[in-house]
Amino acid sequence: MRAVEREVLKKVTPSAAEDQKVFSAVEALVPMVMEAAAALDAHIEPKLVGSVAKGTHLRNMDIDLFMLFPESTPVPQLRDVGLEIGRRVLGGEEHYAQHPYVRGTFNGFQVDLVPCFHVRDLRKKMSAVDRTPFHTEFVKAHLKRGQHDQVRLLKRFMKGIGYYGAEAKVQGFSGYLCELLVIRFGTFEEVLRDASGWTEGAAFGLPDHPGREFPEPLTFVDPVDSERNVASAVSTEAIRRFILASRAYLAGPDAKFFFPAKPKKWLKARIAKAAGDRLENMTAVSFERLDLIDDVLYPQLRKSLTSMTALLERSDFEVVGTAMSVEDEVTLLIELSSIRLPRERVHRGPFVGSPNEVEFRAKWDHAGLSEPYKDGGRWYVVAERKQVRADALLNEMISSLTLGKDVKKIKSFVVESGDQLLARRYASVMTHYLDETPPWER
């Protein structure tokens, strides 16, 4: 192990006192959960899962306590009783991950109290939540002595490069995936060495747990369920960043990969210089942040951004890139090869002699910028675009697009472009989009 890795482990590994505190909290929490369950006549089995249970937790750990209900429990009862137990014990707020659960604090720790079914047969179809206890037991059984620290290094490395976590906001590498990578390749260094040669579409599994490849950018077959891809949440951007970071770290190990400097918003002059002439071909849609948890908000924002780019592409605009930022305000940024198109567009019609040619010629007779004409066996006409600017098109059509269901409720969208994007409200999204410096080089 390199000196830098030993130093990182000193910083991220919980002390004996910290471990004692978290396990004492669990010991105090379990009886309270069981008491609340008994008061509701619920028969549950509490089970500690997640990184604390597996011994791969970092400092500032959370507690994941699952409440296993009998498989015969009706789904509405599991949901309602599970949430009520959580509310009685934690207060907290409701979240959703296939089964709803309650998140709150207890003895200084963030706690997730999660109801699930106590599935005993791995061959049965189950939700990701129901599968989690099996994941915990698998990792506990297969991580070898010394590999727990290797997992900690990999987790902290993923945090450092900005892609630790499978949640919708991050679209990165989950803790379970990090554990399986160490089980598969042996050490943190060997994971990075293998990742240095990855390409999009790479597929892995454990030797004794085969499975099929999946359509996502990265596949790691779940050894607990061969029909599940543990890496399904990992985005193409996350894979590219991990490959680049792996190569760079092996070439020059440094603590900055694990603990990079915090990014700073660029000032107006720097944004203008970096954007240059591209600025005039950028447009942004902004609106007030919705009061939603991240796992609900971010998929809606991505759906909305995709719908906007699809509209532009259908209208002959070429999308170069996109970005988003979420602060008090949401901003969706789109860069185009040109924000303005010619007034004229060539509209292709039916084949000459086809049943539709009479209708086409009648529709466009004296209606276009040219009369219908033949070319290569088809009818064409030069038509006039209703909107020649991308920002004007978005402003006109945004309310009719297929946006996220809560984004659709927004009453006021602000569409701005060019020099308007140098305003301070756009500093975050513009910095994120233009700054190509990887975290470890800040």
Low-confidence stretches: none
CATH homology superfamily of the largest domain: Poly(A) polymerase predicted RNA binding domain
Structural category: alpha+beta
Report helical residue fraction: 25-40%
Q: What is the overall shape?
A: globular
CATH topology name of the largest domain, in short, is: Alpha-Beta Plaits
Gyration radius over CA: 27 Å
> In which order are the strands of the major sheet placed?
1-2-5-4-3
Strand-residue fraction? Answer: 15-25%
Write out key terms for the chains shown.
Poly(a)-polymerase, middle domain, Alpha-Beta Plaits, 4 domains, 4-stranded antiparallel sheet, 5-stranded mixed sheet, alpha+beta, Beta Polymerase, domain 2, 442 residues, single chain, 15 strands
Write up what this structure looks like.
The protein has 442 residues and is α+β, with helices and mostly antiparallel strands. The protein has four domains: 115 residues, Beta Polymerase, domain 2 (2-Layer Sandwich); 111 residues, Orthogonal Bundle (Poly(a)-polymerase, middle domain); 127 residues, 2-Layer Sandwich (Alpha-Beta Plaits); 41 residues, no CATH class. It is 39% helix and 20% strand. The chain contains 14 helices and 15 strands. The strands form four sheets. It has a five-stranded mixed β-sheet with strand order 1-2-5-4-3, with helices on both faces. Strand 10 and strand 11 form a beta hairpin. Helix 8 crosses helix 9. The longest helix is centred in the N-terminal third of the chain and has 24 residues.
Question: How do the strands and helices of this protein lay out in sequence?
Answer:
Blueprint: H1 3-12, H2 16-39, E1 45-49, H3 50-54, E2 63-69, H4 75-90, E3 93-97, E4 99-106, E5 109-117, H5 128-142, H6 147-161, H7 175-185, H8 188-195, E6 203-204, E7 219-222, E8 225-229, H9 236-251, H10 268-275, E9 282-288, H11 294-314, E10 319-326, E11 329-336, E12 344-351, H12 357-364, E13 373-375, E14 378-384, H13 390-397, E15 414-417, H14 427-434
Parallel strand pairs: 2-5, 6-7
Antiparallel strand pairs: 1-2, 3-4, 4-5, 7-8, 9-11, 9-15, 10-11, 12-14, 13-14
Helix pairs in contact: 1-6, 2-4, 6-7, 7-8, 8-9, 10-14
